[in-house]
Design goal:
The complex is a heterodimer. Chain A is an alpha/beta fold. Chain A is built from two helices and eight strands, in the order βββαββββαβ. Classes of the chains: A alpha/beta, B alpha+beta.
C-alpha cells in the first residue's frame, strides 16, 4: 500500500500488486489524472499501449478501466487501474495526456457505457449511435437483443426500415 | 467515392450518420461553390468507403476537403465488428483460439501464438522448446506472408498492377507450407495451449527449406524493381509523414513506429518464444513517410528469413506439447489407447485449462502489424472473465486519422496502404 499526494494535500491510498505479469497500481478516480500526468511527466511513461474496460459485475464500483503504459526510456511496463461507479460511470479522459487515449476511451464507452469527461469526440467507435445497449456488460445476452439494430433490406429498391 | 448531397438525409442508422457528420467541425460544408468559382478552391465533404477497393476492407473515411487538400479526416469503424471479445467470454480458451485466426486474417499464425502465449503465461504452462521453435517458424512465415500482401497492394495503389500477382505467387508458396505444416492453408489454428497441434512434417520441412533458399532472390528482385523506381519513390517520399514524437503520442505501433524512428519491437522489448536466442536487427528509419515504412517492412522480411534460417539450424528434438494432462491436450496416441488419456482429452474439451482465480495477464507479441496483445482476467473457470485484444490495426488507424490531415486527396489511398490496416482485427 502506497500513498499519492493530492494537490490539496489529501493522500489517497494506492494498492500495488503484481498478478501473472505486470506491476499494477490501483488508484482512486479522484487522483487518476494526477497520477497519470505524473507518470508521464516524471517517470517517462510516454507511450500508452492500451486502455481496457472490464465489468466486475458487482454493486458499487462495477467497472474497471485499466491503462497499459510503457516507459520507453528504461523499457518498463506499468498497469494503472481505476474503478468506475455503476450508477454514474464517469471518469476523466486521459486524451489530454496521450492523444491516442481518445479511441480507446471511445471503445470503452461503446462497450460498457463508461463516460469520459473532457473527451474531444466521445462517440461510439464500433456500433452505430442508434444502438442503445452496451454489449460487453455482463447482462447483455450473447445472442444480442432482437430488433435492437436495423438490418439492411434484402432488395435495394425497398426503403430501409427506420 | 461519391459526393454527399446536402439534401439527402440518411435512411440507414440515421442517428449514427448524423453524429458522424457532426464530428467534423464544419458540418455544413457538403459541397459549396458558385457557378463561376473554381471547384478546386471550394470545400466539400467526401465520403469514401466502406466498400471501396482501396480501403483494404470495410473502412469508411469522411474527408473534409479544401480543394485537393484534406482539412480534416474522420474514420468510421465497426463495419466488421463481430464482438469476438464477447464470444471469448463464453468459450474455453482453446475453443476461442480459432476465432483469433479471423482477426488478422493475413497472419493467422501470429494471432494463435499470441493467444496461446497469454493463456500459458496466466496459467503457468511450460512449453517444450521444439514447440516454441515451430511457433517461431510459423510466426515468421506469417510475417512474410502479411508483408507480401502489403507490398502487392501498396505497389498496386501506386499504380503498378502486375506486381500484386508476383507477390501473391510468393504468398502462395507460404500457403502451401501452411497446408503441410498445419493442415490448413489460410486460417491455420495450429498453435495449441501448451504447444502446437502436430509436429512439423518432412514435406513441410522441405518446403520451408526451399522457400528460405529461393525467397531472398525474389525479394532482391522486388528491391531492384522498386528501390530506384522513379514513379514509386516520387509517389511515396514525403507522403504521410508521422514524426517520432507524434508517432509515440498517437500510439503508433509496428512498422509505423519503426518507420518513424523508434526501434520498438516486442521481440526485443519483452522477448517471448525463443527470440532472445535469435540474432536479428530491428529495421528502423527516421523519415516517417511512406517510403520509410516501405523500407522497414522490406527489411523485416529479410530479418524474418534470417530468423527462419536460425530456427531451422537449431530446431531441437523433443515433444511438441506440454506433458501435463491438466494443462494441455494429451497426444492422440494416449487418447486412443488409454482410458486416462481419453478422460483427459474430454476434460480439456469440456472445461479446459483453468487459470487461478482473480489473476490478470497482459502478453504481447510482435505481429506483422505491430504489438498484438491479449489481456486476460480469469475468474478461476475455464472461460475468461474478460479477454481484451489490443489490436495493432486499431491503433495504427488512429494514427491514420491524424496523419491524413494536410495530405492531398490523391495520396489518401497510398497512406492507407502504407498504414496497412486489417479491418478484421481493427473491428474485432
Amino acid at each position: 500500500m502506497a500513498f499519492v499526494e493530492h494537490e490539496h494535500g489529501v493522500s489517497h491510498p494506492i494498492t500495488v500488486y503484481r498478478s501473472a505479469s505486470d506491476l499494477t497500481l490501483v488508484v482512486p478516480r479522484e487522483t487518476l489524472l494526477d497520477t497519470l500526468t505524473k507518470l508521464k511527466e516524471e517517470h517517462h511513461f510516454v507511450y500508452l499501449v492500451d486502455i481496457v474496460g472490464a465489468d466486475r459485475f458487482v454493486e458499487g464500483d462495477r467497472f474497471e478501466v485499466i491503462y497499459n503504459l510503457i516507459d520507453l526510456k528504461s523499457a518498463r511496463r506499468l498497469v494503472v487501474k481505476t474503478l468506475a461507479d455503476e450508477d454514474s460511470p464517469v471518469l476523466p479522459s486521459a486524451s489530454s495526456i496521450w492523444t491516442n487515449a481518445s479511441w480507446h476511451e471511445r471503445e470503452i464507452f461503446d462497450m460498457y457505457g463508461v463516460h469520459f469527461t473532457d473527451h474531444p469526440d466521445l462517440r461510439r467507435v464500433y456500433l452505430p449511435e442508434d444502438f442503445e445497449y452496451y454489449p460487453l456488460r455482463k447482462e447483455f445476452p450473447l445472442l444480442g437483443i432482437p430488433g435492437s439494430i436495423d438490418l439492411p433490406t434484402s432488395t435495394p429498391d425497398q426503403e430501409a426500415s427506420s | 467515392m461519391e459526393v454527399e448531397q446536402k439534401t439527402s438525409s440518411p435512411t440507414f442508422f440515421k442517428k449514427h450518420q448524423e453524429s458522424f457528420y457532426k464530428s467534423l467541425e464544419d458540418k455544413h460544408t457538403t459541397l459549396e461553390f458558385e457557378d463561376n468559382q473554381d471547384p478546386l478552391n471550394s470545400r466539400m465533404v467526401l465520403n469514401m468507403g466502406p466498400s471501396h477497393p482501396a480501403t483494404h476492407g470495410v473502412l469508411r473515411l469522411l474527408l473534409q476537403l479544401n480543394g485537393e487538400t484534406i482539412e480534416k479526416a474522420k474514420l468510421d469503424l465497426g463495419y466488421l465488428h463481430r464482438g469476438v471479445e464477447k464470444i471469448a467470454e463464453n468459450k474455453t480458451y482453446q475453443e476461442f483460439m480459432p476465432y483469433t485466426d479471423r482477426m488478422d486474417y493475413l497472419s493467422p499464425y501470429s494471432n494463435n501464438v499470441a493467444l496461446c502465449l497469454a493463456v500459458e503465461k496466466i496459467a503457468g504452462v511450460d512449453v517444450p522448446d521444439r514447440a516454441q521453435y515451430i511457433r517461431m517458424i510459423g510466426a515468421e512465415l506469417a510475417r512474410i506472408s502479411a508483408h507480401l500482401l502489403w507490398l502487392g497492394t501498396m505497389v498496386m495503389d501506386s499504380g503498378a498492377v502486375s506486381f500484386f500477382i508476383w507477390t501473391f505467387r510468393e504468398r502462395e508458396k507460404i500457403y502451401d507450407i501452411m497446408d503441410q505444416l498445419a493442415g490448413h492453408r489460410f486460417t491455420v489454428s495450429h498453435a495449441r495451449i501448451g504447444g502446437v497441434a502436430n509436429d512439423i512434417t518432412d514435406d513441410a520441412m522441405a518446403l520451408i527449406k526451399e522457400f528460405v533458399q529461393t525467397f531472398p532472390k525474389e525479394l532482391k528482385g522486388f528491391h531492384s524493381m522498386l528501390d530506384r523506381n522513379r514513379i514509386f519513390v516520387d509517389r511515396n517520399v514525403d507522403v504521410g509523414v508521422v514524426p517520432t514524437d507524434k508517432a509515440i503520442d498517437l500510439g503508433a505501433t509496428g512498422p509505423i513506429l519503426r518507420g518513424s524512428g523508434f526501434a520498438y519491437d516486442i521481440r526485443r522489448f519483452e522477448p517471448y518464444l525463443k527470440y532472445d536466442e535469435m540474432e536479428f536487427e530491428i529495421p528502423t528509419r527516421l523519415e516517417g513517410d511512406n517510403l520509410a515504412r516501405y523500407y522497414v517492412r522490406m527489411e523485416e522480411m529479410h530479418e524474418s528469413i534470417r530468423i527462419l534460417r536460425q530456427c531451422l539450424d537449431r530446431l531441437p528434438k523433443g515433444p511438441i506439447r506440454a506433458n501435463d494432462a491438466k494443462q494441455a491436450y494429451p497426444s492422440k496416441d494416449e487418447v486412443y489407447y488409454s482410458m486416462e488419456g481419453m478422460i483427459h482429452d474430454f476434460m480439456m474439451t469440456d472445461t479446459g485449462i483453468c487459470p487461478p482465480e482473480g489473476s490478470e495477464v497482459y502478453h504481447a507479441v510482435e505481429a506483422p502489424k505491430g504489438e498484438l496483445g491479449y489481456f486476460i482476467q480469469s475468474d478461476g473457470t475455464g472461460h475468461p472473465w474478460r479477454l481484451k485484444v489490443n489490436a495493432p490495426s486499431f491503433r495504427n488507424l488512429q494514427v491514420l486519422e491524424h496523419s491524413l490531415e494536410g495530405a492531398s486527396i490523391s495520396d489518401t489511398v497510398l497512406i492507407i496502404g502504407s498504414i496497412d490496416p486489417v479491418m478484421g482485427e481493427a473491428d474485432k
